Amino acid sequence: MIQCKDCEFFHTTPDGRKSFSCDPFSNIKETECIAKWQLIRLDMLLASYNSMLLSQQKLAPLQDKIFKYMKREIDDLDESDRWKTDDDENPNFPLPPDAPHPDDKP
Question: Residues 47-60, buried b or exposed e (16+ Cβ, 10 A)?
Fold first, then answer.
């Protein structure tokens, strides 16, 4: 089995990072290369997931504050509009002083 360091698709960058230019659909030298390529891609996926998770953890307190503020604003709006719905709940309100109550039977 050929080692990655001996492969023509392996490159080392000046800062020491390893770079692979192999494509699993066109220029794989050996079958083990596919397994290695999958491990590399899985490692990249895990690294991007970890960075996303870290940024989400940094934003979580701000997100909680925004949710609390929005809930408070919505509750205030509901409270200020409550006078509109109170009349709808009791359609007989207000009754004139001399009018009989609609629930009273004559």
Answer: eeeeeeeeeeeeee
Tokens encoding 46: 């895990």
pLDDT > 70 in the chain, percent: 79
| 16 three-class SS | coil
The answer to the question of residue 8 being in a domain is yes
**Is the distance from CB of 22 to CB of 9 less than 8 angstroms?**
yes
Count of structural domains within the chain: 1
Let me know if residue 44 belongs to a domain: yes
- Is the predicted pLDDT of residue 98 greater than 80, yes or no? no
92, pLDDT greater than 60: no
**88 belongs to a structural domain:** no
Range of the domain at 44: 4-60
Provide the whole-model pTM. 0.52
**37 within 8 A of 20, measured Cβ to Cβ:** yes
Whether 104 is covered by a domain: the verdict is: no
pLDDT surpassing 80 at residue 94: no
